[in-house]
Q: What sequence folds into this?
């Protein structure tokens, strides 16, 4: 028994990580002033440089490597949500609707994969609509009791026509009408941070427009696959969809640094 415990302690310490992140979370990793990246948002807080990285949504532990440092990403239990949709053509789309949705997915992917040619230097996000949260991020979804992709977005309540504002300065990179998302607008905030707004009644912007934080970009609606009017809000950081509730916290992003209080910026990396 004692040998077993000793072996367990030895093996767990061998695999200890200095950095641990959450599925769908945001992680602030200290990096040197010289570190450069096209993929990640670099941000200076209190004179120190950090990569502010969106963590992938994972169902099992996963190890990421950024700037030769390893981050262990652990699953989070975000709960589940069950909804009923009676319009069968939305639940079991026809072949032509499936093809349409696939084309739209590719279009979205191509927009999100284009490198921003400007940098994000403001992380104080505004809430895009005032309404309450009706469905949180990461929930396992069941539509008419059948398992579907998890909800990697935040749903905010509202009435048809309620204003949706830009949470940060941005360039409008996509405005469309999609099978699932309905009327959608995608904003590029720079530094590989994008946000999207689905199910809108209408968009107030066109592709190529520059918008300021707080500008009206569209109106809440119930277009696409929905059960009623609301905003489906997605934040993409370095290609990962993260929990938007994180950026709405008052002390974001300073709260990400709690683990580093009194610790030098160049943390020693664990042996592995
Ligand atoms: Zn949603």
A:
């Amino acid at each position: 028994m004692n040998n077993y415990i000793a072996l367990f302690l030895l093996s767990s310490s061998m695999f200890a990580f200095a950095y641990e992140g959450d599925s769908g979370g945001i992680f602030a990793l200290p990096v040197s002033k010289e570190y450069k990246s096209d993929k990640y948002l670099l941000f200076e807080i209190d004179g120190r440089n950090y990569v502010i990285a969106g963590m992938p949504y994972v169902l099992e532990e996963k190890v990421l490597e950024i700037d030769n440092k390893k981050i262990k990403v652990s699953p989070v239990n975000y709960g589940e949500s069950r909804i009923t949709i009676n319009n069968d053509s939305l639940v079991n789309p026809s072949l032509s609707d499936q093809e349409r949705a696939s084309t739209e997915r590719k279009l979205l992917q191509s927009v999100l994969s284009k490198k921003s040619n400007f940098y994000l230097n403001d992380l104080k996000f505004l809430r895009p609509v005032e309404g309450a949260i009706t469905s949180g991020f990461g929930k396992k979804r069941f539509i008419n009791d059948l398992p579907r992709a998890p909800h990697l977005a935040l749903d905010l309540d509202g009435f048809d026509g309620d204003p949706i504002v830009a949470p940060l300065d941005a360039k409008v990179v996509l405005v469309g009408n999609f099978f699932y998302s309905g009327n959608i607008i995608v904003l590029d905030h720079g530094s590989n941070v994008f946000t999207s707004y689905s199910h809108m009644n209408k968009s107030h912007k066109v592709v190529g427009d520059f918008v300021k934080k707080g500008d009206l970009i569209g109106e809440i609606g119930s277009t696409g696959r929905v059960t009623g009017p609301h905003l489906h809000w997605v934040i993409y950081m370095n290609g990962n969809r993260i929990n938007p509730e994180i950026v709405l916290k008052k002390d974001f992003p300073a709260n990400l640094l709690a683990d580093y209080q009194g610790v030098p910026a160049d943390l020693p990396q664990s042996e592995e």
About this structure: The pocket of zinc ion is lined by residues 135, 151, 153, 155, 232 (CB under 6 Å). The chain has two domains: 2-77, 80-248. Residues 134 and 155 are 5 Å apart (CA to CA). The radius of gyration is 20 Å.
